[in-house]
Amino acid sequence: RLYFFIYTFFMVLMFFIMYSIFFLIFKSFIWQADGLQQHYIAFRYYGAWLRTCISNIFVNHSFEIPMWDFSIGQGADIISTLHYYVIGDPISLLSVFAGKNNSELLYNILIFLRMYLAGLAFSLFCFKFDFNKKGILIGALSYIFCGYTIIAAIRHPYFINPMIYLPLILLGAEKILRAEKPYL
After folding, report:
1. Residue 162: closest CA among 123, 108, 122, 129
2. Which helix (H) or strand (E) covers residue 14, if one does?
């Protein structure tokens, strides 16, 4: 527990140091090119689409999932269009809780959450090998604040997801090699 408290403290501290310029000039993490024209739009649309699906099932009592929307303009159905951006990303499921007024805030928070989870996954992997906890902390912070993440986190937040999955996949493989429970 102490490790996770210290990790959280330093992660939040470094995050605010690295990205403080955004807060000081009241700017969002949504990048003008791909962020505004693709990622954020898909995130907002996905939230509305999920709310529609839930409403259809629980309020209207019909299992009707909208599959086509000519207004999205990508030349394919909804699932084919959104699969690249948000469908399949468990963190993006939280978009269901964001309306038009607070979707930008949630989008920004989820960037932080992805980075935080990447460091946690890295730490869990390192704990399997009984490394020094100070070394794990330095490694986790280096892992999540590497050059790739600093750029990709803002421009393409979904590109951080492999940084969460890789340590978990390696940890699962290690458990299998040690003949432990392979559920991970």
Report:
1. 122
2. helix 2-24
pLDDT band at 73 (very low <50, low <70, confident <90, very high): low
Q: Which residues of 128-149 are buried (b: 16+ CB within 10 A; e: fewer)?
A: eeeeeeeebbebbbebbbeeeb
Sorting pLDDT into bands at 50, 70 and 90, what band is 157? confident
Alpha carbon distance, N-terminus to C-terminus of the chain: 21
CB 155 within 8 A of CB 34: yes
Query: What is the Cα 14 distance to its own chain's centre?
Result: 18
pTM of the predicted protein model: 0.89
What's the CA gap between 113 and 100, in Å, rounded?
A: 20
Whether the predicted pLDDT of 119 surpasses 70? yes
- Asked if residue 87 lies in contact with residue 97, where contact means CB atoms within 8 angstroms, the answer is no
pLDDT tens per residue, range 60-71: 999 988 888 877
